[in-house]
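P.,

For your records, the input lines for the assembly:
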Amino acid sequence: MDLALAPETLARWQFGITTVYHFLFVPLTISLAALTAGLQTAWVRTEKEKYLKATKFWGKLFLINIAMGVVTGIVQEFQFGMNWSDYSRFVGDIFGAPLAFEALIAFFFESTFIGLWIFGWDKLPKKIHLACIWMVSIGTILSAYFILAANSWMQHPVGYKIDRARHRAELTDFWAVLTQNTALSQAFHTLAASFLTGGAFMVGIAAFHLARKKHIRVMKTSLRLGLVTVVIAGLLTAISGDTLGKVMYKQQPMKMASAEALWDGQKPAPFSIFAYGDVEKGHNTVAIEIPGLLSFLADDNFTSYVPGINDVNKAEQQKFGPGDYRPNIPVAFWGFRWMIGFGMASFAIGLAGLWLTRKKFLLPKHLRVGEDEVPHLVLFKNKALSPKLSPWYWRIATWTLAFPLIANSWGWIFTETGRQPWVVYGVLRTRDAVSPGVSQAEVLTSMIVFTALYAILAVVEVKLLAKYVKAGPPELTEADLNPPTKIGGDTRDADKPMAFSY
Amino acid sequence: MHLHDVWFVLIAVLWTGYFFLEGFDFGVGILTKLLARDRPERRVLINTIGPVWDGNEVWLLTAGGATFAAFPEWYATLFSGFYLPLLVILVCLIVRGVAFEYRAKRPEENWQRNWEHAIFWTSLIPAFLWGVAFGNIVRGVKIDQHFEYVGTVWDLLNPYALLGGLVTLTLFTFHGAVFTALKTVGDIRVRARKLALRVGLVTAVAALAFLLWTQADTGNGRSLVALIVAGAALVAALVANQAGREGWSFALSGLTIVAAVAMLFLSLFPNVMPSTLNGDWSLTVTNASSSPYTLKIMTWCAGIATPIVLLYQGWTYWVFRKRIGTQHLAADIAH
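Structure tokens returned:
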């Protein structure tokens, strides 16, 4: 059989496509839920209209996005059984539990309270309605945690034993699965990156409106909130990424070596900025490196030994028998770089933005602006030049919103590719995990169907987002400013359409 | 009682919850073509399920996740074996969710009509296919000694399973019509009741045939009791519908679903997926289940989480308990 169309290859492609696509929406859902909740809290506390407008504006974009997150998530749960039935049989005892927990504890929470939030604007008192969006936010975070615990178990299996008679792995310590350091640092890293994504999304869209001098009050508030989020989340992403790197060095040396295209172990080991190598011969022909940095990243010590790809491959051959234990090294190497590069870029833009839009009293007098004016982004002393250049900077800032999305996607591709050829590191190989009874035609069909469907939905989603982004925050009505005081709303509007979303 | 028996019951409960809840929202989706005459009426129908369909669907995700955790072999055999029908269901659920969310996001009539077509088909197809799937699970399929499904997709389309599909399709439509009568005011409520009668009669014939067939094939004493309850509840639901007692009618159409699903699971037990090739190759609650430790943890989780879920989902229905209608829909927001 042609290897490119083998069911295993197709199933992997399908998993990659559906997961990366799903993960375009998940980080935005997680962060926008919390940010919208924050804005709504500000409204309930201060009763300033700009906060309510911001809540409705970002809330709408959040809803367009979460719809896609929810529907693409359904596929994730079922494709383990469809394409990876031997995986499901082998690890269901362990892997199924966090999935079931996620559904029981997080999904119900999220989906029930999102219904209440969408339709509850004129049915619930202010504070109860506010509590609903916080519940949604808690649900999204819990959901992410359980999934990341499940994934971390695949990266670093703990709390299990192998039952040879039933040919499967069995759970012995669920608490260990939920709280092992891989799960904790991966959750920390992913959640921080999610907020980086949501913050950059806000910055980008707010900058888009500010460049056109529209909806200035709402967008200035959103811009500041977005910038602060980007900077804090960016720092946390970097810190947690560093922690995760050290965990990876101990638990998955092959992934670390591949991320660096470090063929042979070195002491001290350099960090590679650029590398071009020969996978067959196992060495690089071109490499630009920073000496000692990899040792430091891996082990907090500039002179530590870091094993190379060839060393780990040999060690694994001795342990698990003959075979090639190397992942796709160019994908791992470049995935790692794109992840860090785009993540850092959004952090840098956030930091610059925060500096450029800093509080009034820090700016020289002639650059201060009133509440209804757009601040100039000043990089020059020339007073005449900066107002002219400002709109260009706003436009550049708009592009920030794409950076974390790219970083996230590559982050997942890296972490999943780096584990290959294992599906559960050191326990189960990917080739032993596919569904033996599912034909090539079936996998090919579903891959084409999902990819085509996702492509169409992507167009629809982006067009809708663009429409609502351009429309800007809504005008507020009497009803918006005077929510009901009792549950169920007032009797006079019982059959008023629940108009916020549908 | 062993924990794997408890989990068999819990998974039956999750599927029952799913069919009870998403049953009526599938039904309402189907009614957008059968009952609604114009855009405002379609809007009202969609509004009756707007706040709850997403929460209803999570019952399916939970049933799937719980099966994965409690009976990994069942999960693996079922979802890899029923590959193509499941693919169709997944595509429908994806399009359906997006359709609800995106339909009113643009004002153009074309845009909304396309999503309304989508809502109709993506409600109808899964409503039918779930019955086909359960028909095959109960009847048994070609499973080999490695618990792999070795039949083809055509084996799944046998008369018994297709009849099962017709039952879920009509039963959910009936359930949806009764729900619509309960949730609306005005003309649409009267017509929903009339439609409920007609669909209910078809449902009664199909369901009776299917359940009797099941009873004759794999039934036992307990499943016979469930069969009688299902039949009686369906008749009582029709009577209540004629009497204009919509709350009762909905509760009874729900009870019909509960009893019918119970009957299927009772006639299945202790198998979870029988093999038609060799009785020894059947998946049972024992050979398909997880380890006692996993089941214990899951039982704790379900024991604590389920009552809470029922409480807040129940609260949602209470918040949105009022009937809705078209008479106050202003022309400009009637889409």
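Two observations worth noting. Chain A touches chain B through 81 residues (CB under 8 Å). Residues 497-502 of chain A have pLDDT under 50 and may be disordered.

Regards
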